[in-house]
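User: Second chain of the day. Same drill as before.
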Amino acid sequence: MCQLTDLQIEKILEILKESEITSYKISKDTGITQSTLGNYRNGKTIPTQANALILKRYFGIDFAEKTGNFSDNTNSVVLGDNNSTGNIDNRHYYSDSPDVLRAQIDLLDERIKEKDAQIKEKDAQIKEKDAQINKLLEILGKK
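Assistant: Same format as last time:
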């Protein structure tokens, strides 16, 4: 389960507030409504775990792990591509809006596509190795 701490959510909010990306664009990309994003930026509300996870992935935030204890490293933030495969507790999503659910499904679909591509690449490598082994067996069988 990927549970964000309060400090991590605060860091996500800081990045959201400092971002020059419009609420419209973020809303369109994530499924979080513009009014909700506005409330986050104005400090009126804080994100649910589900929305915080969506924003974390959207901005490519990675909370760097320096000491081996994840909770001790909440102040260390890395921005960029987030290739983490953290598990998300789906119980948080049942109370959220359909837009948030749709955004999370889209993120999961992206992960599935990435994994499918990796599987196809590995299958090609296996076939290549299998062909090499068969050639070696033929050579050894002829001697």
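Residues 65-95 have pLDDT under 50 and may be disordered.

User: Great, on to the next one.
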